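INTERNAL AUDIT FORM
Audit reference: QA-55
Scope: verify that the stored structure record matches its stored sequence.
Auditor: D.O.
Record contents follow.
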Amino acid sequence: MARTTGFSVQMKVAPSHEVIHLAYLYTKAKQLVVNWLVETKPTFKTKTDLIKILHHEWYEKLKQIGLTRRLAEDCYRDAGNVYT
């Protein structure tokens, strides 16, 4: 019988202002998308349909707000998960 050993490392890291700002932008952007969903109540049959609607409506707007490509995608997908 094989044995495995593991270990963990604990570190204290101070977040940079840029990371804090991105977290703030992400939170505000997600709030905007969820509010839009509640107000407009888009019709969709599947979750994939909802993601397509959100991408079409929000991807460029979220990038203009200052989110990276990946964060913009994660943001509207996360908001869609909150809504459904």
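Auditor finding: record pair retrieved intact. The longest helix spans residues 17-40.
Action required: none
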